[in-house]
Amino acid sequence: MSNAQLEIQLIASIVAIACAIPGTFLVLRKMAMISDAISHSILPGIVIGFFITQDLNSPLLILLAALTGIITVVLVEYIQKTGLVKEDTAIGLVFPTLFSAGVILIAKNANDVHLDVDAVLLGELAFAPFDRMVISGADVGPKSLWIIGSILIITIALLFTFFKELKVSTFDVGLAASLGFSPAVIHYGLMTVSSITTVGAFDAVGAILVVALMIAPPATAYLLTTNLKKMLLYSVGFGVFSAISGYWLAHGLDASISGSITTMLGIIFLLVYLFAPNKGVIAVLYREKQQRTEVLLLTFLLHLKNHTDERERHVNHLNEHINWQKVRSKTVLDLALKNNMIKFNKNIVSLTEKGDAFTSQAIDYIITNEDAQIEDMKDDFFLFRG
Amino acid sequence: MNIKEYIELLFTDYTLRTITLGTAILGAVTGMLGSFAVLRKQSLLGDAISHAALPGIAIAFLLTGTKDSNILLIGALVSGLIGTFWIRGIVKKTHLKSDTALGLILSLFFGFGMLLLTFIQKQPNANQAGLDKYLFGQAATLVESDVWLMALVSGICLLVLLFFWKEFKILLFDADYTKTLGFNTKFIDVLITSFIVLAIVLGLQTVGVVLMSAMLLAPAAAARQWTNKLSTMVFLAALFGAFSGVFGTAISATQNNLSTGPVIVIIAGVFVLFSFVFSPSRGLLFKQIRFIKNRRDLQLHKTLTFMFHIAEDHDNISHPHAIKILNNFHGYTRGTLQKLEKKNFVKLDGNMWSLTEEGYKTASNLYNQQNKTNE
């Protein structure tokens, strides 16, 4: 592994961490699309900043571009406040217009600007190590490493200082306000950090990867945990893992690094989305099926309790009466038998003592409108779940 | 070049005519379907889908090896639809919110598309150049067959829209009611979403992935300000969209170095801004004017009520009083007094004022009405 390769992976990992931290809060505050809007609308800021400074890495340019990001947020909020359109429409109107303005600015000055839209949107991580930072003649490393590194340090410092405030205002705005933390200050603080991170990262990894790194790791982490600290840690972990594995994927395929990192993020999200315990799609589908069977079982037991007449409790009659398919009836009967809820006597079904106790208690809960209690009761009675 | 020359050129020049027609049709159809996206609060879906279409284009090229725009568009359509339904799956099956789902699909699909595009570029195949026009769109690459395709798709959209108008409308405003009426809401929902995806995919070649969402939203958001009626809104949105297309093409054709997509978006943005400010019923300008007028009316009423209370204490309601006593009253100005005189509520005589019969009646009714509304 060469020095340049190591530096690329280092930059990618640091960008991933710097993005995951504000991204976690954006996802929790339901503002994920704001990061997409910011990443597009900083373009005119970058262009104007470039006209002034003639240097893509100057701090002034980063500040100007971050300012455009904040202007975007303010504009979106202003349009939303007029009540003329909904918030999502406001976002969808503001950023393409600002982006178009940026594209036109570039096109009009194409001859004397060494900047093109592809580079801003897509970035090229492979070139990042060639732009060196030189302090009094000594080479101290790639410029973008320094930029994104200092942004990361500031972000982490802010995170530790204001963790409590961020946490409270994210989950309960009213409480935060009543405790004396201004939600507006925290909101705009978060927006500023997101803007600066986006700008600082764009030239290394491109605007789209910034969005992916801000949203995908926290969203993946959110499927695994509901603890804020764990979510932050998982996000950082997913981000760094995809940054490094994405680099080697790009190396193998000889394709764009930012594209590969995003693809790795996508694969990780897909896996977690499908297989996450409790919240993954397969777990949810399984739980839904289980609940469906258990509701059927309850209906069946109630039916048995209601009818003492032997004719009503004959197996064939049950099939006709409740109108279930063969397979479904078999599943429910099997489950009831396994849990010792029913017993057979010459094809006549009757409740066991346990079944009777379960059903009486269930009826109690249903009558008193405490259906939610039935879930807990299931844990006490069921040896096997549906 | 003046306007007359430009119009002449429009009819004689093949490229200009094709592009103008293409962008006009595109604007009309996206405006039409965008109205539904905006009203269904799916505004950002357009952004997500247009990004999600990119891997489809790349895969279609990898599989077929042709650059035929129809085949690439089918790829885009398929991948756009997969993206849309995945977004629904995420929102429905997990606790992630719709904004996170949109952002996820948008960035992940786009990144994957970029991976494929760069992968294709490294392939030893000279045919691959020009795929990246789908990123930012190049209206200049439109040819007559593209315009025909657009016209055909727009025609189908229009037919479906007319045919299912009632269903779309009722689903839009009251989904639960639609279900109780026995309509297959899932089918209607999928139908309208698929057509929105189709419209977006159609525009990729012209305005590109990034700006497509504005094409979908801006005409609809502008049209929304002028009417509360769905049919009028759809019609207006189509009109605004078409005009943005025509004007945008005209401006970018007459200037050097201006790509069509961004100019169309800016023009559509101007339409939105104009509508936000100048729409008679919802616009900011008239809202402000109404606000000021209401405040004036309120002050006028306050002055009148104050006068009424003074006059009430006298047997003769037209007994003259000095203007001076009004001086410290909040809301009193010389202007309001003159206005009251114009309405024939008071009579002015030098430094004295007196309430007329009509003024007394209005003032007492005003009081009653206020009481009534308070109750």
TrEMBL record, chain A:
What coarse category fits the chief subcellular location reported for this protein?
A: membrane
Pfam families linked: ABC-3
**What residues form the membrane-spanning segments?**
6-28, 37-54, 60-78, 90-107, 145-163, 175-198, 204-224, 231-250, 256-276
- Keyword field: Cell membrane, Membrane, Transmembrane, Transmembrane helix, Transport
Q: Which GO terms describe its cellular component?
A: ATP-binding cassette (ABC) transporter complex
Biological process (GO), any one = transmembrane transport
The protein's name is: Metal ABC transporter permease
UniProtKB/TrEMBL annotation, chain B:
- Compartment(s): Cell membrane
Please provide one cellular component term from the Gene Ontology annotations of this protein.
ATP-binding cassette (ABC) transporter complex
Lineage here is:
Bacteria, Pseudomonadati, Bacteroidota, Flavobacteriia, Flavobacteriales
Q: Which family does it belong to?
A: Belongs to the ABC-3 integral membrane protein family.
Q: Which domain of life is it from?
A: Bacteria
Q: Which Gene3D superfamilies does its entry note?
A: ABC transporter involved in vitamin B12 uptake, BtuC
- The answer to keyword rRNA processing applying to this record is no
| Gene Ontology biological-process annotations | cellular response to iron ion; response to zinc ion; transmembrane transport
A Pfam family assignment: ABC-3
This protein is called: Metal ABC transporter permease
**What is the membrane topology here?**
Multi-pass membrane protein
